[in-house]
Structures are given as C-alpha cells and as structure tokens.
Write a structure and sequence with these properties.
single chain; 336 residues; alpha/beta; Rossmann fold; Helicase, Ruva Protein, domain 3; 2 domains; five-stranded parallel sheet; two-stranded parallel sheet; 48% helix
Length: 336
C-alpha cells in the first residue's frame, strides 16, 4: 500500500535524522580510534545491518580499542570474552547451576554467559579450541543458545565482533569454514602510518585520554536495519551481485580464471545477502534511496574475502583472496 505525502515526508525526516546520528557515531569513534576511516565506516555499517564482523590483524593495532570504542558510542549492553586455549563452551553460553531457592530446597537455574549482550567482543577468537569456537555458531546464526535441551533467546540488537591474529602466528586455531561464513564482513586492520603513530602517541600517552560518548541507541539501530532493508535495488544491480557470486564459483560457467585455478569453493548465498544488505545500508547513509553499483563495489571485498576457499594450489602459492574477489567484481561490472 502506497504511503501518503505526509507519511512519506515523515519517513524522509526520519532517514535524515538517522543519517545525522550515524555520522555522529562514526565521528565519535574517530575521536578515540586514530586512522583507518574505511574500517570504522564498514564496522559501523555492519552494526546497523546487524551483521557480525571479523577483525584480523597482528597484535597491538588497536582492534580491541576499536570495538570498545564502538560499544561506548552505542547505548547497548556490551560484554567482552577473552578467548584462550582453556576456555570452555559453557564459559561463553552459560550453564545450569545448582542454587538455593527462596521457598526452600535447591534446584537448577540457568546462569547466562557473556554471549547474552547486544554487542559481544570475542577477543582473539582463534586462540580458543574449535570446540569453544563452535559455541558461537548457534548464537551468531539464530540469536540464541541451547543448554540442556532448552533454548534461550538473545535480545536484539545482537552482533558479535571477533578479533583474530593472522593464522600464521603461533598458538592459533583457524576458524572452520561454517563459522567464517556467518561473519557479515571480514576487515583487515593495517599497520599504522607515521602520521597515525604520532597521533596515537599524542592521544594515549598524555595527561588525559579521550573517551567516546553515547551517540546512537539500540532502538535507532533496529529502526535503521528496517529502513535499510526497504532500500530498493534495480534488476541490473541484483544481477551484478549474482554474477559476482557466480564468478567465485569454480564450477560455474561464469567463474573467472583465478577462481577456476585457485578455489575449491566459492562464496555462498549468504555472501550475496551480505553484499546486498551492506550495499543498501551504504546507499541509505549516503542519502540515496536506491542501491547503485558503487555501493556493491564498496562492500564486495569485505563481504566475500573470507567466503572464498582456496584449493591446495592457492594455499601453496599464497594467493590473496582479495585478488580473486576483485577479479570477479570486475567481471560483474559488465552485467547490464
């Protein structure tokens, strides 16, 4: 049913206000976290979409600081889980404990784990064993956990931001493909430039430190998610996304040369969903009411780099998955 002029004007005002607040959210993060504006923008975009994010980088680049700053800028419940080799699944999800009841007697009660929050920082997720890593699978996909046969839902908004060290580093356990596929974006945190290092020293070693102020609420996150899904995309843009995904499938006729040679598995339909939702949110907060090809190009690599799985030859030659996605993206640009 079509909206009246008054209703349309109301939605326009709401979108304009959300854009302003979203800009304030990114600016507040940038006050504390120095450099990497693209990382900040994509992390904030994923938060609005309700998607989980994997941050990869060597220790000391400020990944944890970035996520804690995002949490401070959002008026949401935040928890942090430090993943270690001895962490158990119950330390993440929670467990049933035998407790004394008020009316007398004793019984089991569920004690929620740190996963029960709006924003969860899974710090150094690949330091834990696969058994504990898998404790996040149900929560990330279903927004709930099952303990002793009973399911417990997690309140929305809910999203996980995990940090990980490069898998070549000692003491890491690579995440299984099924869990990687549940991350909306994978963002690579680069080393700081000379100017960024100077700014970091200035802001962190002086007499006072800067802290982020709340600038976006949980209600606004949920409303922005609804509005982003309503942004229309043309048939040509949808076909571009489909061709992008097909271009990474080594068994497809549309597969690119790099995909055919170096991949054993391409991006999944969930990858296509992440590209489209990310593009819609990008369009919304850029002030456009439709998705453009540039929006798809903006989010394609972070949405797909962890979803294309290299074969033995690709691993042996150290082929960067970004190259494969970029080649598929170049081929998808020709679709009309």
């Amino acid at each position: 049913m079509a909206m009246t002029d008054a209703e349309l004007a109301g939605v326009e005002r709401e979108i304009a206000e959300l854009r302003r607040r979203f800009g304030g959210l990114k600016a507040e993060i940038a006050r504390v976290y120095v450099g990497n504006p693209d990382i900040v923008d994509l992390l904030a975009t994923a938060a609005v979409c309700g998607g989980h994010v994997l941050l990869e980088g060597v220790p000391g680049l400020g990944k944890t600081v970035l996520v804690k700053t995002l949490a401070a800028a959002l008026e949401v419940k935040f928890t942090r889980i430090q993943f270690t080799p001895d962490l158990m699944p119950a330390d993440v999800t929670g467990t049933n404990l035998l407790v004394d009841r008020q009316g007398g007697g004793r019984g089991f009660e569920f004690q929620p784990g740190p996963i029960f929050a709006n924003l969860v920082l899974a710090d150094e997720i690949n330091r834990a064993t696969p058994k504990t890593q898998s404790a996040l699978l149900e929560a990330m996909q279903e927004s709930g956990v099952t303990v002793a046969g009973k399911r417990y839902g997690i309140e929305q908004p809910f999203f996980v931001v995990a940090t990980q060290n490069p898998i070549e580093m000692e003491g890491t356990f690579p995440l299984p493909e099924a869990q990687l596929d549940r991350f909306f974006f994978k963002l690579k945190v680069p080393s700081s430039s000379e100017q960024q290092l100077l700014e970091i020293l200035e802001s962190t070693t002086g007499p006072s430190t800067v802290e982020a102020r709340p600038s976006f609420t949980a209600r606004e996150l949920l409303r922005a998610r609804e509005l982003a899904r309503q942004v229309p995309a043309s048939e040509a843009v949808k076909r571009m996304v489909v061709r992008l995904i097909r271009g990474t499938d080594p068994t497809a006729s549309e597969a690119t040369p790099l995909s055919k040679r170096y991949l054993r598995c391409g991006a999944s339909p969930r990858g296509a969903q992440s590209v489209m939702l990310g593009a819609k949110a990008t369009a919304l907060f850029d002030g456009r009411h439709h998705v453009e090809r540039a929006d798809v190009e903006r989010v394609a690599v972070p949405a797909l780099r962890h979803r294309v799985l290299r074969n033995f030859e690709g691993d042996a030659e150290g082929v960067d998955p970004d190259r494969i996605v970029e080649e598929a993206l170049a081929a998808a640009r020709t679709v009309r």
